[in-house]
Specification:
Helix content: 40-55%
Largest sheet: 7 strands, mixed
Number of strands: 13
Shape: globular
Radius of gyration: 21 Å
Cofactor: pyridoxal 5'-phosphate
Function: Catalyzes the decarboxylative condensation of pimeloyl-[acyl-carrier protein] and L-alanine to produce 8-amino-7-oxononanoate (AON), [acyl-carrier protein], and carbon dioxide.
CATH class of the largest domain: Alpha Beta
Organism: Leptolinea tardivitalis
Distance between the termini: 49 Å
CATH architecture of the largest domain: 3-Layer(aba) Sandwich
Pathway: Cofactor biosynthesis; biotin biosynthesis
CATH topology of the largest domain: Aspartate Aminotransferase, domain 2
Bound molecules: pyridoxal-5'-phosphate
Number of helices: 15
Family: Belongs to the class-II pyridoxal-phosphate-dependent aminotransferase family. BioF subfamily.
Structural class: alpha/beta
């Protein structure tokens, strides 16, 4: 191997030795409560398919019909070659679902953050950012060139303190926070953060990727959960989690959406999601607007699983959502735990540094409405077995 590549192999070896090398398993089936993983039937505790939409008959049918009507690809960026009706319909429907006046969709939640942050702030500005914000927020913030000032996780007092300290040093400011923090499953105190944003007249943005389809009435998200309609300036969401498809969204005031159609770089320089993707997202909205049944089942399942895991003696951290971390500490133990679960038929990934802080490695269980009570009981039984074998519980 050429010398100039040696450092990469050394880095990879270091990751392996530390138990931090991520071996990606291969899925050979549609998403659902059960998967074929590396050729083996496994109970799925990994995916963000909160509502079972990734293989829902209504979404599949909508996608197939969209292929017949629009074909498979958008063939160019929307701002240059025209935008398909299906993307505009999705945006209208999404705005109505979120009870805002406008929405714009992107290729992913990641792209939405890369689009919106640099469009709103630049070199003369500051971003007040929760220290545990998602990587795509961090990257969007860096791309903007604005000064990034972190505040303590989910801590309004810390936010207010850094705002006071930065007074007079900037042109514009933006407060940005995850809605649901995906590694711990806790929820940002958006009501208190909003009060501060309002008081200091600062733009407020929430990234509700894990709240979309999960929090609020019928899955309308964190703004609905806190009854802050019309008050949060920018609500970012994703259609790749509970919506089971692919795509990102920014919902808010028409002036912001209009600006993003002119200045959101992933919108201007990258093609849109495919027509069947957009149509499937519309079908997800149909299902969500018809009934809260799936969202209710998701929460029932989550409450049951979490309570039973606590009864078994596991530390499920600070989660208040269907995201259920099983705190284990060392990355090597978490990896061993995940491997043993897999040998016993449960697919649940270990998360270590840099996804979570050092010493806070864990297994993260993602609960879904697609799980039956029987599935959850099977999972609990296997967690008990592996937990005892590895000395995590008594
Ligand atoms: C998953 C996630 C994203 C990325 O969403 P994609 O649609 O998968 O790109 C962005 N922000 C947060 C907070 C997320 O959890």
């Amino acid at each position: 191997m050429a010398n100039r590549l040696n450092w990469i192999q050394e880095e990879l070896d270091t990751l392996q030795q530390a138990g931090l090398y991520n071996r990606i398993r291969t899925i050979g089936s549609p998403q659902g409560a059960w998967l074929v993983v590396d050729g083996k039937k496994s109970l799925n505790f990994c995916s963000n398919n909160y509502l079972g939409f990734a293989n829902h008959p209504r979404l599949l049918k909508a996608a197939q019909e969209a292929i017949n009507r629009y074909g498979i690809g958008p063939a160019a960026v929307r701002s240059i070659a025209g935008t398909m009706e299906v993307h505009l319909e999705l945006e209208r429907r999404m705005a109505a679902f979120k009870k805002v006046d406008a929405a714009i969709t992107f290729q992913s939640g990641f792209c939405a953050n890369l689009a919106v942050i640099p469009a709103l702030v630049g070199k003369e500005d500051v971003i007040f950012s929760d220290e545990l914000n998602h990587a795509s927020i961090i990257d969007g913030a860096r791309l903007s060139g604005a000064k990034i000032i972190r505040f303590a996780h989910a801590d309004p007092a810390s936010l207010e303190q850094v705002i006071k300290e930065a007074a007079g040093t900037y042109r514009r400011a933006l407060i940005v926070t995850d809605g649901v923090f995906s590694m711990d499953g806790d929820v940002a105190p958006l009501d208190k953060i909003y009060a501060i944003a309002e008081n200091y007249d600062i733009l407020l943005m929430v990234d509700d990727a894990h709240g979309e389809g999960v929090l609020g009435t019928g899955g309308r998200g964190i703004v609905d959960h806190f009854h802050l309609h019309g008050k949060v300036d920018i609500e970012v969401g994703t259609m790749s989690k509970a919506f089971g498809v692919m795509g990102g969204v920014v919902a808010g005031k028409p002036v912001i959406v209009d600006w993003l159609r002119q200045r959101g770089r992933p919108f201007l320089f990258s093609s849109a999601v495919t027509p069947p993707d957009a149509a499937a997202c519309i079908a997800a909205l149909d299902v969500l607007e018809e009934s809260t049944e799936l969202v209710d089942r998701l929460w029932d399942n989550a409450r049951y699983f979490k309570a039973e895991m606590k009864n078994l003696g596991f530390d499920t951290g600070v989660s208040t959502t269907p995201i259920t971390p099983i705190m284990l500490g060392e990355a090597l133990l978490a990896q061993q735990f995940s491997r043993s679960l897999f040998e016993n038929g449960v697919f649940a990934m270990a998360l270590g540094f840099p996804t979570v802080p050092k010493g806070k490695a864990r297994i993260r269980v993602m609960i879904s409405a697609a799980h039956s009570r029987d599935d959850l009981d099977k999972g609990l039984e296997i967690f008990r077995k592996v937990g005892r074998e590895l000395g995590v519980i008594q």
